[in-house]
TrEMBL record, chain A:
It is a multi-pass membrane protein. It holds the Pfam family CbiQ. Its main location: membrane. GO terms for cellular component: plasma membrane. The chain crosses the membrane at residues 21-48, 68-86, 133-158. Belongs to the CbiQ family. It comes from the Bacteria. Keywords: Membrane, Transmembrane, Transmembrane helix. It is found in: Membrane. This is Energy-coupling factor transporter transmembrane protein EcfT.
From TrEMBL, chain B:
One of its GO terms (cellular component) is plasma membrane. InterPro entries: BioY. Belongs to the BioY family. It is a multi-pass membrane protein. It comes from Paracoccus aestuariivivens. It is found in: Cell membrane. This is Biotin transporter.
Amino acid sequence: MISLTSPVKTRAHNWPAGLKLLGLAATTTLLFLIPGIRFQAAALVSVLALYTIPGRHFLHHGLRQLRVIWPFVALLLVWHAIAGNWPEGIRTALRMTSAVAIANLVTMTTSLGDMTDLLHRLFRPLRRTGLPFGIIEIAIPLVIRFTPVLIGKGRLLLDAWRARSPRRANWHIVLPMALLALDDADHLAEALRARGGLNPRDED
Amino acid sequence: MEKNVAQIALFAALIAALGLVPPITLPFGIPVTAQSMGVMLTGAILGARRGFLSVMLFLLLVAIGLPLLSGGRGGLAAFTAPTSGFLIAFPVAAYVTGLFVEHIALRPIALRAALGAVLGGIVVMYAFGIIGMSIGLGKSIPECLLLVTAFLPGDLLKAGVTGMLVSAIAKARPQSVAWSLNV
């Protein structure tokens, strides 16, 4: 399965994932603590400058990930233009764009392996509390393995629908997909048991 | 143990798959992605505890950079966007939906699951989502409430469809929907 990590290697790929996450938390907090429009503009320019360092391919890929916030930027600008206090709208739009852009930067420069290693370390003290963090960790590779399987089965169901009905496939395919998920879970559980079963507590 | 882990994993995968399969058309031709319906279904079928874990697992995979949100979005950016409140609400929504169906003895099953989905998938989801939007967009709570009301009819339909689906699943795999066996 494809992750959102950029294939363009940057220096930031080698930085520790925990440090990058702390940096992200600190930057986002600062964005909310310092409301000045000049600070917000400078922040966005700096973040976008970071996007340009690894080259055009990285920039293009990164900006495409930001497209979800454009409707909100438009909404804010129109709203505040009508209300007559457009500086407020620009300020909030700048802050929102920076917050999303910097978070996306961390995702683009951190490999899936680094992230799961970090999770493992973060979960270590939590596992001793008896809460089911071990289960969640064991299940991560299972989800990565089975999501494409279920998507494939979903596509087959859609094709089967299209071959038989002139109407669009609708929510009806959710039922067979949910049943497939339940049946796959049964088979998977049997397979796991046959291979010795799981014990989330005896890791480490 | 193995069965719980397998169901938690497979339902997280189902939520992801429902976001990536092309948008689904609800009655009256309203196009929606089925992802939030996946969250309601997970809570209603797996119950509060396992439903919560399953949706939590899904969010964790989104956070570590897998493009599992509807439309192929994902990564940490999803958690700093103005819509992040809805995302953070996902596991709580599944938990509340599960809690409702496990404890409120109501017949028929479809009604019970649909009401659970309204409580978890709409009341809880909108409460978190509106607070998140209010912080991210710098708008007041009533203003944000106004912004999301456009989605209310679609979400009510999704809750209704969830009820029908759960009732059908309980008929097809009664042992998998344990709460449907006790009245």
